[in-house]
Design goal:
Blueprint (H helix, E strand, L loop, with lengths): L12 E2 L2 H4 L2 H9 L2 E5 L4 E6 L2 E4 L1 E2 L13 E6 L6 E6 L13 E4 L1 H4 L5 H19 L10 E4 L4 E4 L5 E2 L4 E9 L5 E6 L10 E4 L6 H13 L3 E12 L4 E10 L12 E7 L1 H10 L10 H10 L20
Parallel strand pairs: 2-7, 12-16
Antiparallel strand pairs: 1-6, 2-5, 3-4, 3-8, 6-7, 9-10, 10-11, 12-13, 12-14, 13-17, 15-16
The protein binds zinc ion (ZN).
Zinc ion binds next to loops.
Length: 319
């Protein structure tokens, strides 16, 4: 099975690692940088024909934008003259930003409508901002930390130790039985009718494969074999890296929900999936998610048309 290109994993942005440690060069870039305004949750965007794109500012437009507190995001590989920084804006309307051209949206709200470049910038920006806001103090000595190297690390003011953005690996697995049905689960916290593939965080000292076997046994009571890697996708809500696999269930008759995290599990054939979507009794995960791409990959497997349309059906985000 092949996944379509994953929105959050197709960047076109060169993170330019060498520039991060060259403060003189970074300051020079700042003079002509394109700044992305973020208020801690939402990005400032412009909307044309109902399609949003990130609104890009110069530092002159934004009184609160300071080089010292901005995070360097990288350079557009296709347009090397375009370089981007994230700047934190205390509140959405503190600078009179609410006007006819600029609106504020979360990455979830903009979803798959953003261009690949913008979605990659927004994902990097969101993940980085999440990490900075939660790591204001040194885990070794408790002193304050400050952003350094263009925002790519934080450094302790006391013991000078460096701290790197944290990413939490999580596995996500599409499981099938011998009749090529897939098993989807439903979490209690999800909107009604929403089902998805099984996912879970990798624990310390665990391999991806061990994690897959443990999670599927815990959540759905099944044992799996033939585990194959499909792809990966950053998921900055707040700091995950989703690592996608497919696997074959050896004991489909044992499938049952754990009753705590997963309240319901169901088998789907391609026909039943389509008819339930049409009937409104099944909602799929968001279009930009790897889970959606996995379900679509299975649904369209073996079809010759490379430009096949996505599965119909409304998407749902968890609240
Ligand atoms: Zn310290």
């Amino acid at each position: 099975m092949k996944l379509r290109t994953l929105p959050l994993a197709d960047s076109g942005i060169d993170r330019s690692d060498a520039l991060r440690s060259d403060e003189v060069a970074l300051k020079e870039l700042w003079q002509s940088a394109k700044l992305i305004a973020f208020d801690g949750e939402r990005f400032r965007v412009t909307v044309e024909n109902e399609v949003p794109s990130l609104l890009l500012h110069s530092f002159i437009d934004l009184p609160s934008a300071q080089f010292e507190s901005a995070y360097f995001l990288g350079i557009d590989s296709n347009n090397p003259g375009d370089h981007f920084f994230l700047t934190l804006t205390p509140t959405a309307d503190s600078e009179g930003f609410i006007d006819e051209t600029g609106r504020w949206f979360t990455l979830r709200e903009m979803g798959a409508q953003l261009s690949p470049r913008d979605i990659a910038l927004a994902a990097h920006a969101l993940g980085l901002a999440n990490w900075h806001s939660r790591h204001t103090h040194c885990p070794q000595c408790g002193a304050k930390t400050l952003s350094a190297l263009g925002g790519s690390i934080r450094r302790c003011v006391k013991d000078k130790s460096d701290h790197y953005p944290r990413t939490d690996p999580a596995i996500i697995t599409l499981v099938r039985d011998k009749d090529d049905r897939i098993l989807l689960g439903r979490q209690k916290v999800w909107p009604e009718h929403r089902f998805s593939t099984f996912a879970g965080f990798v624990e310390t000292g665990e391999s991806f494969e061990q994690c897959i076997r443990r999670e599927l046994f815990e959540e759905a009571g099944v044992e799996v074999t033939d585990i194959h890697y499909l792809g990966s996708q950053p998921w900055p809500f707040p700091a995950s890296l989703m690592v996608a696999f497919e696997a074959r269930i050896t004991n489909p008759e044992s499938a049952r929900p754990d009753g705590t995290e997963i309240e319901e599990i169901r088998w789907f054939t391609r026909d039943s999936l389509k008819s339930e979507i049409d009937a409104g009794t099944l909602l799929l995960p968001p279009l930009i998610s790897v889970a959606r791409a996995m379900i679509e990959g299975w649904y369209h497997e073996g079809e010759s048309n490379q430009d096949r349309p996505p599965l119909p059906g409304r998407e749902t985000w968890r609240p």
